[in-house]
Amino acid sequence: MSRQRFRRRRTVGTMVGGVLFTALAAGQTEALDWGPLTSSYDGTKRSSGYGSFTIAGGTYAQNKVYTKDLAADGNTVYQTTTWQWYEAGGWGTGYSRSTPEHSRTSYQVNYLRQQLDSSSEKVRGSHTVCVQLGFPVADRCSATALTTLTY
Predict the structure, then answer these.
(1) Are the beta carbons of 33 and 5 closer than 8 angstroms?
(2) Sign of the Cα pseudo-torsion (76, 47, 70, 33, in order)
């Protein structure tokens, strides 16, 4: 497992009600690290994930995601990213994508990305990790990490 995710970045972070907020100052295009996050069910930690949110090639907001199955109980794990753009004084409707589900007990890497909105200068990523549980039990997801980039 790479220790790069623990590098110090020039970010501002605040924890409010179980949601971690991070942001970069205008003009910075470094990656914002989020996580690690875990989800639990029935007293057992089931999934873990962390990632790096950045602007890729000046055209995409990209999330490099690492997910891992902590329980190895046959239930799959995944990560969901939702992108929102700042417009007219508020955050607009989001677009969500999820990584493929897996049940591997080592971290698996995936990339999720969404094209930038040319009418905005800020993008926010909402990040959660989840475990897929069988019907009728709903999936259990972690707290949300929020990252904001100015481009």
Answers:
(1) yes
(2) positive
Q: What number of H helices and E strands is found in the chain?
A: 0, 12
Give the model confidence (pLDDT) of 59-90 as tens digits. Answer: 999 999 999 999 999 999 999 999 999 998 99
pLDDT tens per residue across span 30-57: 799 999 999 999 999 999 999 999 999 9
d(CA 140, CA 128): 10
CB 47 within 8 A of CB 69: yes
Pairing type for strands 60-69 and 77-87 reads unpaired
132 token code pair: 């897929």
Q: How far, in Å, CA of 151 to CA of 118, rounded?
A: 10
Angle at CA of residue 8, ends 69 and 122, nearest 5°: 85
